[in-house]
Write a structure and sequence with these properties.
two-stranded parallel ribbon; about 0% strand; Growth Hormone, Chain: A; mainly alpha; globular; about 80% helix
């Protein structure tokens, strides 16, 4: 049975909701894994370099599978491919939950990524096929809940499961939930219309795999190996060379893996560029706020989750509102209003300090999320809205690749800035402290008396405070950069108009 996009204004909400729940599992798991990394290090007895591959392996494997999602969706049919992807993700989650060593966990994460990497582009393609154009904004807004809920649900759920049941539960929870969603999709969602293509672009696949593997590996290894090391430079050079060959080949082959000719659509290109820049700016807050709250404000993992949860709820609500407004007013006014609010709140985050109150930061994050949600989802929907129906699968794959690689590079750049600025601020603060001055000696004496410790222990507390202040200031620098990216996205959106 096939479910085409009808001429009515009815949205198949059951399909949209089930697709959203499936992708939500992948987003929440990704967020939780980032949060529980210290626990994994202790449990598996490995260092920071090897444990980083738990996330890097997933990033690289999912990046390699995304380009073929468009072709596979047409070849296997969209619904069948989504069921296969969800099944592989669930199987990978089971393997991850049963792993007791780092090697097994890494292999399991690759399996998990091969399924999880397909969920987002395939679900987008299905929605583009079955939802009436006039209601696409509302449907994509609900679909966007999986993106907004991950950073808010992940920390709380991850902390609870890890404390109560151990880290294995983080992965094993996907098994019953994934199986239930898979069964519901199999029986309740009809097949989606497909457009068969006679040839597969094997050359494009090989070129894209080398290009994406090189750049994603460089991003994952750059911080450890050094961004100017020969290893990383060679990887980026390989990525550039094969990326250039990939573009030339895709523009001249009759059946491309990724139809880059879509970028001839000016509105599609402009919306994608704005969305990519805004996503990079969004990541500065999404991924570094937990570090600030835990290391500078000394909040527990659960308290951090409670701090972030209202922002995720706010983004989900405003995404639904923005989706309905998109169907009436289009992209431009929503993007301008949202990016203005998000950039203003992000600049405010550049002045956070360890003394910032829980409530102040919570509301700052809520207002920032309202701005991001108001802009980001209409931008994505607006880009895909202009694509012909038969190219929905390819456009969704391009959307995922075009946002994954720059966003990963942006996150790596923010991490580089954080580490560099932390050393700079630490030296600046430490240089201004004279341990032999009366003020410093008085401070050390007060710390020694307050903690009941020796002088050398009091000095350690003092230097720990210096380290905390340096980290807080370096995070402020990262938040400032994120605000600059959001401001750049607003400027680019203005040029687009």
């Amino acid at each position: 049975m096939t479910q085409p996009r009808s001429g009515s204004d009815d949205i198949p909400w059951l399909t949209v909701v089930l697709l959203t729940l499936a992708t939500l599992l992948a987003f929440v798991t990704t967020t939780i894994v980032m949060i529980i990394t210290p626990r994994l290090m202790l449990a598996l007895g490995v260092g920071t370099y090897r444990i980083a591959w738990v996330s890097s392996a997933y990033l690289i494997a999912s990046g390699l599978i995304v380009p073929v999602s468009g072709y596979l969706g047409e070849r296997l049919h969209m619904k069948r491919l989504f069921l296969i992807a969800l099944g592989v993700f669930v199987f990978g989650s089971l393997l991850s939950g049963l792993a007791n060593d780092i090697t097994t966990l890494l292999v399991a994460r690759v399996v998990q990524a091969l399924g999880g990497g397909l969920l987002m582009p395939v679900s987008n393609a299905i929605i583009l096929r079955i939802v009436p154009p006039r209601r696409l904004g509302a449907a994509m807004a609900v679909r966007g809940i999986s993106v907004s809920a991950g950073p808010s649900v992940g920390p709380v759920l991850g902390a609870y499961l890890t404390d109560r049941l151990g880290w294995h539960a983080v992965f094993l929870m996907n098994v019953p939930l994934g199986i239930l969603i898979l069964i519901l999709i199999y029986f309740l969602i009809p097949e989606v219309e497909s457009f068969h293509e006679p040839h597969f672009d094997y050359v494009g696949l090989i070129l894209s795999c080398i290009m994406l593997f090189s750049v994603l590996l460089a991003i994952s290894e750059g911080q450890q190996a050094g961004w100017t090391s020969l290893y990383i430079v060679v990887l980026f050079t390989l990525s550039f060379f094969f990326g250039l060959l990939f573009v030339i080949w895709e523009l001249n082959t009759e059946y491309p893996l990724l139809d880059l000719r879509l970028f001839k659509n000016i509105f599609f290109t402009a919306s994608m560029v704005t969305a990519v820049i805004a996503t990079i700016g969004m990541y500065s807050g999404t991924y570094f706020t937990p570090l600030f709250t835990e290391e500078s404000m000394h909040l527990t993992l659960i308290r951090t989750g409670l701090l972030l949860a209202p922002a995720g709820v706010a983004m989900g609500i405003i995404a639904f509102v923005a989706g309905n407004l998109f169907d009436r007013v289009g992209t431009l006014p929503l993007a301008v209003a949202g990016l203005t609010l998000a950039s203003a709140m992000s600049f405010e985050m550049a002045y956070l300090s360890p003394a910032t109150s829980f409530e102040s930061l919570m509301w700052l994050l809520v207002w920032r999320s309202l701005g991001i949600g108001l802009a980001l989802f209409p931008l994505t929907t607006g880009a895909l809205y202009t694509v012909p129906r038969r190219l929905a699968g390819r456009a969704s794959a391009i959307n995922s690749v075009a946002r994954m690689v720059p966003a990963s590079m942006g996150l790596a750049y923010f991490t580089f800035v954080l580490n560099r600025q932390e050393a700079v601020h630490f030296n600046n603060i430490a240089t201004g402290i004279n341990v032999f001055s009366p003020a410093s000696r008085l401070t050390v004496a007060e710390l020694s008396h307050a903690t009941g410790s020796r002088v050398n222990q009091a000095l350690a507390v003092l230097w720990g405070e210096v380290q905390s202040q340096a980290l807080a200031r370096s995070l402020d620098d990262v938040f400032f950069l994120g605000a600059a990216f959001l401001l750049l996205a607003m400027a680019e959106n203005g040029l687009k108009s």
